[in-house]
From TrEMBL:
It comes from the Bacteria. This is MobA/MobL protein domain-containing protein. Belongs to the MobA/MobL family. Residues 284-311 form a coiled coil. Residues 220-230, 393-425 have a biased composition (Basic and acidic residues).
Length: 438
């Protein structure tokens, strides 16, 4: 965030945090208290403490004298939609704390909601860092020190034994990837992010440019901005690329399909039929085994319900109230009838316990046993349908292949019959052993 471009760290902090700050260097008041979409904003110092936003960024501005000074650095990160609001905040703050620790700078983390007219999953964070290392003053305020290592020119970095500044940017990308993926893992999500550039990922797509506060406000009010136009052109280019990619993929799929079809055509008919029947037998056995396991499991569930009900009925029968007899029977009658009414109600509940569930299970068991009936043929048809989806190129040629195999069998049979008739004819024409010799 360079002063030469007319940027101000105080103004940027006010906009991103949705607050009102006074720039002591220029006297301008930056009031963004009516700006919506700011979820949270907090300051993080290297020592883990906080600071007052206005004091921090005014100190950052006043520490620089040159017209082309950089007063703040901004990182914008997309927060995974798979995380909830609390997890997104924890991730952004954790990443900000890592930057503060790594470079000894103060960090201002502001989380924003998605734009109303954009992708509603685009939760993101604006992370402003001071360009100078900070420390605590006597009164507890943050004091600006030397420039942080990431702000140094490559010549100075070489003198200090450091690599080029571009390496720092790659390192921060990797840091964000690791921090975000740990957060996704803790949240139980299988999604992962890749912080490499699109080019490094091998993705043929142009990246859009962040609009920034001025262009964002213009676009929000329906006015066209140069950056907005640029992004719209990029999106149009990407859509065209996707269309071409889809055509390429479709062409590749069609080539693969035709190659498989040629392989099947080259396969002898008998081999194709043998392969089809073998695979169908495997699928058939798989369906039957699963059905048999289901049959056993359902039967066990039915038996468990019946056993529990019988045991409950037997135990309850032992608790049947004893009918009073003798001289005091009349006095005990009312109490007995009350106990008997309660006992009968409980017996009725026990008898009806899970009857509906048991009936459903019995119907299910009946369907499974029907499926397993040799004459039912359900598992055979299931295997056939599955194989047709699995090997459509086989299915397409199978009828022709079966006809060829049948014709070959018939031809072989006719050939054997002809050979048999020929042998029989030769045997009839041959003279017997009892004939006259010379």
């Amino acid at each position: 965030m360079a002063r030469s471009a007319g940027r101000s760290a105080v103004a940027a902090a006010a906009y991103r945090s949705g607050s009102e700050l006074v720039d002591e260097r220029t006297g301008l008041v930056h009031d963004y208290t009516r700006k919506g979409g700011v979820v949270s904003a907090e300051i993080i110092a290297p020592d883990g403490g906080s600071a007052e936003r206005g004091a921090l960024w005014n100190a950052a501005e006043l520490a620089e004298n040159r017209k082309d000074s950089r007063t703040a650095r901004e990182w914008i990160v997309a927060l995974p939609a798979e995380l909830d609001a609390g997890q997104r905040r924890e991730l952004a703050v954790s990443f900000g704390a890592e930057l503060a620790r790594r470079y000894g700078v103060a960090v201002d983390v502001a989380i924003h909601e998605p734009d109303r007219e954009g992708d509603n999953r685009n939760h993101h964070a604006h992370i402003l860092t001071t360009t100078r290392r900070v420390s605590r003053g006597a009164a507890g305020e943050l004091v600006m020190g030397d420039k942080s290592s990431i702000e140094l020119a490559d010549k100075k970095r070489r003198e200090l034994g450091l690599g080029p500044a571009a390496d720092e940017v790659k390192a921060i990308r990797q840091l964000w990837e690791q921090t975000a993926n740990r957060a996704l893992e803790r949240a139980g999500s299988t999604e992962r992010i890749d912080a490499r550039s699109l080019k490094d990922q091998g993705i043929d797509r142009e990246a859009t440019t962040h609009l920034g506060p001025v262009a964002s406000e213009m676009e929000r009010r329906g006015r066209i901005s140069d950056r907005g136009d640029g992004n719209r052109q990029v999106m149009a280019n990407n859509e065209q690329r996707q269309g071409l990619t889809a055509q390429i993929i479709d062409l590749k799929t069609e080539r693969e399909r035709r190659a498989k079809a040629r392989q099947v055509e080259a396969l002898p008919a008998a081999d194709l039929v043998k392969a089809w029947d073998g695979r169908k037998a495997e699928l058939y056995m798989g369906y039957r085994q699963r059905a048999e396991r289901l049959e056993s499991r359902v039967d066990q569930q039915i038996q468990a319900i019946s056993t529990k009900r019988r045991n409950a009925e037997a135990n309850h029968a032992k608790k049947r109230p004893v009918e009073p007899t003798g001289l005091l029977a009349a006095f005990k009658r009312s109490s007995y009838e009350k106990l008997m009414t309660e006992w009968c109600a409980t017996a009725k509940r026990i008898k009806a316990w899970k009857v509906g569930r048991e009936n459903d299970l019995r119907k299910r068991l009946e369907r499974v046993r029907c499926y397993l009936t040799p004459g039912g043929g359900f598992s055979v048809r299931d295997a056939e349908r599955t194989l047709q989806k699995e090997r459509p190129e086989w299915a397409a040629r199978l009828p022709q292949a079966r006809d060829e195999v049948q014709r070959e069998k018939e031809a072989k049979k006719q050939e054997l019959l002809a050979q048999k008739r020929e042998r029989q004819s030769l045997q009839k024409g041959r003279p017997g052993r009892g004939g006259h010799g010379l």
